[in-house]
Amino acid sequence: MLSSADRDVAEIIRFVTSQSAEAGYLVPTSTGLRKSILDAHQSLRDYLAKVRIHDFESQRQGPDFKVVIKAHILTKDGWVPTQASLYRPNTKTGDPRIWFSKLTSHVKPHNLLAVFAFEGELFVVNTSEASLWEQRNYEDSPFRQLLSSIATPRSSAHVELTSQLRLICGMGFVRSTTNSDNGVGDTLESLLGIRRNSSRNPDFMGIELKTSRASTSNRSNLFSAVPEWSLSELKNSRQLVEAFGYLPHGSDLKALQVTVSSKPNAQTLFFSVNEAGGLIENRHKVPSVPNPAVVWKIATLQSSLADKHKDTFWIRANRRETGGWEEFHYTKATVTTSPVVANFSLLVETGAITMDYTISEKRRVDGSRRMRDHGYLWKIRPADLDLLFPPPYEIDLATS
Fold first, then answer.
1. What domain count does the chain have?
2. Of 100, 120, 161, 315, which residue is the least packed, with the fewest Cβ within 10 Å?
3. At residue 201, does pLDDT exceed 80?
4. What are the E-state strand segments in 229-368?
């Protein structure tokens, strides 16, 4: 598991994405190095499939179907040629395996390896080796030259939206269209001439808009995705509330409005990444409820991220109150493109990506109870956007 790495995984991901690049990651164990066999976990498999190096899902089991491709291992003297073996053994499940010849001479247990694909070959960098990681700072180093070769150019096709946002910024403070939490987004969409609707399509000329108050440090909403009820022990939101809900102060109606991350919360809920099963599992410490309570397919979440955030403007507004109403001045925007979907489960595992339950009981006119939820909201801190996207760029809307 990547959580056993001897260095900060998020630091490495942040640098790689800052170079408009993408990688897969491995953390060899003592047993793996001794037996010359490493688990090809889900996020690495996703990366290899995306860059069209290898698709483990279509590979048959057994030595006759092993795939061998050219590979290189970075050393202080440059790239050492080797080869990578990708296969599925004749076991019950045929768990995907990967191995690089000569690897044991260059790594230690729990080192964090970044695996890059370029022109049909693999390049391995031991980021735990200080002298090798230092190469990232030198333009003529083998590592930096590789990054330059695989970098994806950043899109700049946002001229129309940027122009309109600058005009809106020039209006100064604008009264909110609604006295509610979503006023900051609703008001901007109104100014842009976007009609209210429930469509999940991008908001403006193919661009997704995410708007927030600059005075808050709230996490930004990526998308909403319900659990895979058919694969889960609990089958609906009511069962979730019955198992883990609480009574808000002064109310006899239960609610489950909590954030779930990689560490247990007050309701004992936490995430665990099941790489073998391709699942993100919501586990808990309640003896009477089977574990995990609910699950999501990693592939489904990755697809939601890719569909929702091909192009996104994360817009921030200063706020003030006048006569009991909020007013907003839209001043800044962060632009992201092409999310690195293979990082999604890694960031759940490290706690950078979280999910909010927004479920509560409401009382009908006849006194009966019903469940209401506002989505299963997957979120990330604005400061961590560079872990999930190639380098975001900032726009000061007050300047031309």
1. 2
2. 120
3. no
4. 255-256, 259-260, 270-274, 279-283, 294-297, 311-322, 325-337, 353-363
160 vs 244, residue with greater confidence:
244
* Nearest C-alpha neighbor of 207 from the set 191, 192, 224, 219: 192
For residue 273, the Cα-to-chain-centroid distance in whole angstroms is 13
Range of the domain at 67: 2-150
Q: Report d(CA 275, CA 279) in Å as an integer.
A: 6
Classify the phi-psi angles of 162: left when phi > 0, otherwise alpha if psi is within -120 to 50, otherwise beta.
alpha
pLDDT in tens, 184-195: 999 999 999 887
Same domain, 305 and 250: yes
Residue 271 has pLDDT above 60, yes or no: yes
Residues 28 and 134 in one domain: yes
| Res. 13 pLDDT band, cuts 50 70 90 | confident
pLDDT tens readout for residues 220-258? 899 999 999 999 999 999 999 999 999 988 888 999 999
User: Rounded distance, CA 326 to CA 214, Å?
Assistant: 13
Contacts of 263 (CB under 8 A, 6+ apart): 270, 351
Q: Residue 48: its pLDDT value, please?
A: 93
Query: What CATH number did the domain enclosing 369 receive?
Result: 3.40.210.20
Which is nearest to 2 in space by CA: 30, 34, 25? Answer: 25
Structure-block tokens of residue 165: 């946002």
Model confidence at 27, pLDDT cuts 50, 70, 90, reads: very high
pTM, full prediction: 0.66
Higher pLDDT, 122 or 155: 122
Q: Residue holding tokens 């108050």?
A: 213
CB 285 within 8 A of CB 181: no
Q: Are strands 325-337 and 369-380 parallel, antiparallel or unpaired?
A: unpaired
Neighbours of 394 (CB within 10 A): 9
Cis peptide before 292 (omega within 30 of 0): yes
- Provide the angle, in degrees to the nearest 10, between the axes of the packed helices 298-308 and 42-50: 50
Q: Which of 86, 119, 150 is the last residue of a domain?
A: 150
| Whether 28 and 123 share a structural domain | yes
Q: How far is CA 390 from CA 155, 186, 387, in A?
A: 10, 28, 8
Among 46, 37, 25, 22, which residue's Cα sits nearest to residue 117?
A: 22
